[in-house]
Amino acid sequence: MKYLAFESSTLELKKTLPENEKIVKTVIGFCNRYGGKLVIGVDSERNIVGIPENEIERVMEYLEKSIFESCAPPIIPTVYSQRIGDKFLLIIEVSTGMSKPYFRKSEGVDKGTYIRLGRSTVRATAEMIEDLKWQSRGRSYDMMPVYQSKEEDLDINKILEFLNVRKAPKVEAISHQFLTSYDLIIDEHSAYYATVGGELLFGKTPQKFFPEATILCTHFSGISGREALGSVECTGTLLEQFYMAHNFIVNRLSKSFSIRGLKRREDLEVPEPAIREMLLNAVIHRDYHIEAPTKIAIYDNRIEIFSPGVFPGPLDTQNLKLGLTFIRNKVICKVFREAGLIEKLGSGFITLFESYEKKRLHKPEVIEGEGFVKCILPRPSFGKSSVGDDPDIKAILALFEVSAEIAISDVINTLHISRPTAGRRLNELINKRLIKQVGIGKGTRYRRV
Fold first, then answer.
1. Least packed by Cβ within 10 Å: which of 8, 39, 226, 435?
2. pLDDT per residue over 344-389, tens digit each?
3. Interatomic CA distance for residues 197 and 335, integer angstroms
4. Alpha carbons 133 and 102: distance in angstroms, whole number
5. In which element (H, E) is residue 39 found?
6. What is the pTM of this model?
């Protein structure tokens, strides 16, 4: 019997009871993000194997107390058992915490803070810990003051230009009250400072305060990224960066033309709405506390959009089509929405996948890594090969379009199959002389021939 849910940022499955230390880290990781539950008695392929009933009784006696005493601020989990058929599962469940960051007392806040990233629990970086502190105050990073700045660092003409494109009465003058209502400035200690959002959206020189808050666009020859055909670093305000990056991508792609009535119609090789939505996603929802640029790479067979920071909410690659919306940067999101660049909240990933299905192109891929989100937009040549119609084989070969080497775990995660099945599929490709094995044991990798 299979467990219905898949592992995600809010669910972890274990076949046997982990060490107490690992349980505490996982619980802290859930509490520092969006809550979650650890289910014990389910193997890596979601088969319900259960654990002995007498072991559940023994563990439940001490587990709540152990977690409570190991964490600061204290975490009180819900620990219970669930019977499915003749098998018993042990479930440890926590909600999102209100006093973040949570950490292991024995390690301290700097080393003992853990966070859930996708299906993994990792030690939080200093930037992540700061972000957790802001979350506990109910404020987003772009609302924070930039103490080195002054109100005069904002470009009033750019603000007026934005305000007068909204579907609202025209504005001729801007007051302190107006600027604070948009969280573009903040009043502290009888002085006005520009906020992070204010500088990024309407600063005269945003990169003076945030030198890495840029978009680096590069067009590469081939599929490996060894030879650059052209590049541009998009600077200025976020709105200016968005338009500059969008133009760079569109101008580098192939176009087809058709006549509809008396009008000449131009079509990009990939859906323009997908480019627009993923670029907006990268600009609006990236983590600006991380000192790294957003990166866009155009290859012969794909476009990659790399955004610093993980998903701002309990999203994972299995629920992107649900239209869920979690906002990291409230100031930036509000301005982009009122500027008419966001039509409907939560529609970005839906538009991405539907536009690709309509054009019958290879499915886009969204990857959440440790501190980044990468979106891969296939171009028409992506994944083409002479391997017949086997979808699993095509999916495995498509992995080599984005990486020179892959591991068996990449195949398992992509196809949601067991390790033995993944091994058999890889051996089929080796026998067909389409790939080769490099290394042995845990270091085994596979490359295209």
1. 226
2. 666 788 889 999 999 888 889 888 777 788 999 999 877 655 455 6
3. 9
4. 10
5. strand 36-40
6. 0.70
